[in-house]
């Protein structure tokens, strides 16, 4: 091994496993000598941490409250309730050094309203690597649990994954996409991890974050948004309490979805139900403008209007809400620019 490689390896050990653990076996004088050598080495590489694999340490994982606030404000359109709850939930949880249980968020709403998008914004503001972080795990039923006959295998596999990943890093994030398509029972198998346990088999899950995404309850959220629209009331006047009862009722009574047979709700394991409102014409325009910007094009209001006009809206008579939300807007731009 050449000297430089050895340095790098040594540093990798120190950075990833924590100074104390790595130094313990050595005598103090060696440690001091090493520290001195390291200081010199570190000084010559200011961005030293970027040279190494991602580690479960604050250099790679730290919550940026301002960052999340700015992102929610400037990138997420039409979700005044959702963004408020999410900022509050994350800020409370991440500033607590000793949470009593993991954070469990359940995001609900019509298609294309930003549920996956928000999960990405959350990941971006906790993990330096964002969604690419090795501590962020996304599960989708079609990809990870496609065959209903293999439920038992999936259950134990999922438990192993969560256990293994939280053992690696207690600040792990698990996103369960399209929860409505998950088989009944699968989510039951992770219930213990979401609960108020100090430790399970010596592992604490209390710093982990679980995010469930589903369309369940979307209909009733849409109904309320439509009621407000018909009454010519400002969308921003919709409050969580207007949605809460209906949302939990419709989610509770939806016998078809895997999540809701479980006792996640009656056991209060979900900390926050986050409703996503259906998007209107003006939000589609905003999405189109943002998509142009993201593509490095100059945002052009005329083009955005054109895109938004060509999108389908419902209900048929009033054409208030975009059928696919802001989904496919990015691809549609292709035809206009
Ligand atoms: N409220 C929003 N504000 C800004 N952009 C949005 C919003 N909703 C959707 N988008 C854009 O549309 C894309 C698709 O949205 P996303 O995948 O988050 O929808 P979803 O709510 O997960 O839908 P589904 O229920 O079909 O999975 C996002 O990547 C984002 O670019
Ligand atoms: C947090 O986010 C803000 C706004 O995006 C950014 O200016 C700031 O540099 C970020 N802070 C850290 C420590 O990354
Ligand atoms: C962590 O989760 C992933 C799935 O996202 C899985 O492939 C991997 O084996 C898990 N790691 C451990 C150590 O269990
Ligand atoms: Mg989605």
UniProtKB/TrEMBL annotation:
Any one GO molecular-function label of the UniProt entry: ATP binding
Protein location: Endoplasmic reticulum lumen
This protein's name: Torsin
Keywords: ATP-binding, Endoplasmic reticulum, Glycoprotein, Nucleotide-binding, Signal
Binding positions for ATP per the UniProt entry: 109-116
Primary subcellular site in the record, as a coarse category: endoplasmic reticulum
InterPro entries xrefs: AAA+_ATPase, ClpA/B, P-loop_NTPase, TOR1A_C, Torsin, Torsin_1/2
SMART domains (alphabetical): AAA
Family: Belongs to the ClpA/ClpB family. Torsin subfamily.
Keyword Glycoprotein: yes
AAA+ ATPase domain span: 101-242
GO biological process: nuclear membrane organization; protein localization to nucleus
Secretion signal span: 1-22
PANTHER family assigned: TORSIN, TORSIN-1B
Keyword Thylakoid: no
Phylogenetic classification of the source organism: Eukaryota, Metazoa, Chordata, Craniata, Vertebrata
Annotated organism of origin: Sander lucioperca (Pike-perch)
GO cellular component, one term: endoplasmic reticulum lumen
């Amino acid at each position: 091994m050449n000297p430089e490689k050895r340095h790098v390896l040594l540093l990798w050990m120190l950075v990833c496993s924590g100074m104390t653990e790595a130094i313990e076996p050595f005598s103090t004088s060696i440690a001091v000598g090493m520290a001195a050598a390291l200081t010199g080495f570190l000084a010559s590489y200011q961005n030293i941490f970027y040279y190494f694999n991602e580690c479960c340490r604050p250099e790679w994982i730290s919550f940026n409250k301002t960052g999340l606030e700015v992102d929610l404000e400037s990138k997420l359109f039409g979700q005044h309730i959702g963004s408020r709850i999410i900022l509050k939930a994350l800020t409370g949880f991440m500033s607590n050094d000793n949470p009593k249980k993991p954070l469990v968020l359940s995001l609900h709403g019509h298609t294309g309203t930003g549920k996956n998008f928000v999960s990405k914004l959350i990941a971006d503001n906790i993990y330096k690597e964002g969604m690419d972080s090795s501590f962020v795990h996304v599960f989708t039923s079609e990809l990870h649990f496609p065959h209903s006959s293999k439920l038992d295998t999936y259950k134990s596999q999922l438990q192993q994954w969560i256990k293994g990943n939280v053992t690696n890093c207690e600040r792990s994030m698990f996103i369960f996409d399209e929860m409505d398509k998950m088989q009944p029972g699968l989510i039951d198998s992770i219930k213990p991890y979401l609960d108020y346990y100090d430790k399970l088999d010596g592992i604490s899950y209390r710093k982990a974050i679980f995010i469930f995404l589903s369309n369940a309850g979307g209909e009733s959220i849409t109904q309320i948004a439509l009621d407000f629209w018909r009454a010519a009331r400002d969308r921003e006047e919709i409050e969580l309490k207007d949605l809460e009862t209906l949302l939990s009722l419709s989610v509770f009574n939806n016998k078809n979805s895997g999540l809701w047979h479980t006792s996640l709700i009656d056991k209060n394991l979900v900390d926050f139900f986050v409703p996503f409102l259906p998007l209107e014409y003006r939000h589609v325009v905003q999405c189109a403008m943002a998509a142009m910007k993201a593509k490095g094009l100059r945002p052009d209001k005329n083009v955005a209007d054109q895109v938004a006009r060509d999108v389908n809206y419902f209900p048929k008579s009033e054409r208030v809400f975009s059928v696919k939300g802001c989904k496919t807007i990015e691809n549609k731009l292709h035809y206009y620019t």
